[in-house]
């Protein structure tokens, strides 16, 4: 459970798949399954895998007197701030100015709540509904709330207890999710504010602390595990979609747990089978780059007007087939989201991340490991 940090292939490809699923949900209005939920849950798994894994390894170093707790916490928040805040708050400032002038003037966007990373509380309880084109910020709020708590819990808890702690979060969240469904909580509340969102992050953490099997399974057994996980995702996603808008029932919560565990099984397979053809496909250059710029893509995509590229009269004059007429606006909106994300990455995000190593070095030089003292 304490392996050293290594580069994990395929994660950027998974991020790309996640943002494509979210995009299809918001822009192509895929309703056979909840593609948006699958995409967001995949993001949560990846975040848990990376962040909890990092904090777990940091705690191991602390116990070995190789790091200080205060330095670890400072470095963690510095990294998160550089990665998340610049583009997010610039976008919010721009939205605030635009909303005051012309943009969705008739919609209460709850921008103050988004500034405080409380979008999920705003959507699930205060507003009790989806807040215009900024509704997707709820998942960023979940992650930020996790970031505020995780370092203090994990850095100040012995590494040997981390796995059990994550499992406890998953079990408690499943019970709470079931209770919300049973009690008839509103769909926005369940979607944005259920503790099950944090359970997905905790599941990612368990993947980071679960070593590869001592004996590599046969290709047949490995393939069956992957196919079983993919079949579970498909089956639970379709069954869950049948319960949208249905009367109060605990069944959707059970299906959510089944869907999450199937997604987790495939994720675990990918991080432990780094030499597989699937991982190689996920690491293809274009897919990996979309994953690299996925944060900007996620921020911007829902703000692109849904009418962009919609012109039935023009398409009819040009004899454009109906199927192409439907696909063209989605393709144009996707291309614009990619362009905006690319510019955000190249002009801002990438430059901000260049400060991470110098800032980390400065923190560690001021708080050297040799000065660590007191109980750990």
From TrEMBL:
<feature type="transmembrane region" description="Helical">
    <location>
        <begin position="38"/>
        <end position="55"/>
    </location>
</feature>
<dbReference type="InterPro" id="IPR002656">
    <property type="entry name" value="Acyl_transf_3_dom"/>
</dbReference>
<protein>
    <submittedName>
        <fullName>Peptidoglycan/LPS O-acetylase OafA/YrhL, contains acyltransferase and SGNH-hydrolase domains</fullName>
    </submittedName>
</protein>
<keyword id="KW-0378">Hydrolase</keyword>
<feature type="transmembrane region" description="Helical">
    <location>
        <begin position="278"/>
        <end position="300"/>
    </location>
</feature>
<keyword id="KW-1133">Transmembrane helix</keyword>
<feature type="transmembrane region" description="Helical">
    <location>
        <begin position="251"/>
        <end position="271"/>
    </location>
</feature>
<keyword id="KW-0472">Membrane</keyword>
<feature type="transmembrane region" description="Helical">
    <location>
        <begin position="327"/>
        <end position="348"/>
    </location>
</feature>
<dbReference type="Pfam" id="PF01757">
    <property type="entry name" value="Acyl_transf_3"/>
</dbReference>
<dbReference type="GO" id="GO:0009103">
    <property type="term" value="P:lipopolysaccharide biosynthetic process"/>
</dbReference>
<dbReference type="GO" id="GO:0016020">
    <property type="term" value="C:membrane"/>
</dbReference>
<dbReference type="GO" id="GO:0016747">
    <property type="term" value="F:acyltransferase activity, transferring groups other than amino-acyl groups"/>
</dbReference>
<keyword id="KW-0012">Acyltransferase</keyword>
<dbReference type="InterPro" id="IPR050879">
    <property type="entry name" value="Acyltransferase_3"/>
</dbReference>
<keyword id="KW-0812">Transmembrane</keyword>
<keyword id="KW-0808">Transferase</keyword>
<feature type="transmembrane region" description="Helical">
    <location>
        <begin position="188"/>
        <end position="208"/>
    </location>
</feature>
<feature type="transmembrane region" description="Helical">
    <location>
        <begin position="220"/>
        <end position="239"/>
    </location>
</feature>
<feature type="transmembrane region" description="Helical">
    <location>
        <begin position="163"/>
        <end position="182"/>
    </location>
</feature>
<feature type="domain" description="Acyltransferase 3">
    <location>
        <begin position="9"/>
        <end position="304"/>
    </location>
</feature>
<feature type="transmembrane region" description="Helical">
    <location>
        <begin position="87"/>
        <end position="104"/>
    </location>
</feature>
<dbReference type="GO" id="GO:0016787">
    <property type="term" value="F:hydrolase activity"/>
</dbReference>
<feature type="transmembrane region" description="Helical">
    <location>
        <begin position="137"/>
        <end position="156"/>
    </location>
</feature>
């Amino acid at each position: 459970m304490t392996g050293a940090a290594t580069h994990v292939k395929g994660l950027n490809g998974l991020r790309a798949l996640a943002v494509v699923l979210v995009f299809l949900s918001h822009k192509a209005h895929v309703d056979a399954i909840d593609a948006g939920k699958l995409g967001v849950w995949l993001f949560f798994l990846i975040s848990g895998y990376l962040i909890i894994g990092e904090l777990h390894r940091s705690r191991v170093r602390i116990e070995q007197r190789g790091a200080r707790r205060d330095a670890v916490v400072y470095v963690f928040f510095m990294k998160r701030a550089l990665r998340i805040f610049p583009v997010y708050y610039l976008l919010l400032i721009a939205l605030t100015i635009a909303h005051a002038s012309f943009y969705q003037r008739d919609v209460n966007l709850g921008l103050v709540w988004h500034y405080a990373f409380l979008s999920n509380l705003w959507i699930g309880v205060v507003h009790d509904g989806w807040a215009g084109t900024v509704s997707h910020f709820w998942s960023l709020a979940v992650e930020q709330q996790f970031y505020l708590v995780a370092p203090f819990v994990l850095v100040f808890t012995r590494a040997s207890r981390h796995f059990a702690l994550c499992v406890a979060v998953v079990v408690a969240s499943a019970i709470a999710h079931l209770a919300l469904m049973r009690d008839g909580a509103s769909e926005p509340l369940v979607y944005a504010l259920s503790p099950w969102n944090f359970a997905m992050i905790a599941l990612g953490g368990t993947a980071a602390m679960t070593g590869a099997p001592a004996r590599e399974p046969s290709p047949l057994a490995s393939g069956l595990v992957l196919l079983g996980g993919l079949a579970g995702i498909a089956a639970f996603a379709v069954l869950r979609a049948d319960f949208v808008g249905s009367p109060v029932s605990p069944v959707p919560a059970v299906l959510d747990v089944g869907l999450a565990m199937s997604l987790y099984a495939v994720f675990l397979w990918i991080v432990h089978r780094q030499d597989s053809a699937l991982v190689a496909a996920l690491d293809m250059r274009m897919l990996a780059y979309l994953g690299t710029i996925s944060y900007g893509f996620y921020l911007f995509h829902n703000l692109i007007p849904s009418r962009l590229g919609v012109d039935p009269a023009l398409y009819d004059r040009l004899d454009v087939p109906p199927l192409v007429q439907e696909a063209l606006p989605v393709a144009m909106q996707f291309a614009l989201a990619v362009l905006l994300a690319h510019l955000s990455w190249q002009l801002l995000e990438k430059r901000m991340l260049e400060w991470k190593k110098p800032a980390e070095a400065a923190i560690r030089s001021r708080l050297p490991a040799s000065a660590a003292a007191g109980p750990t």
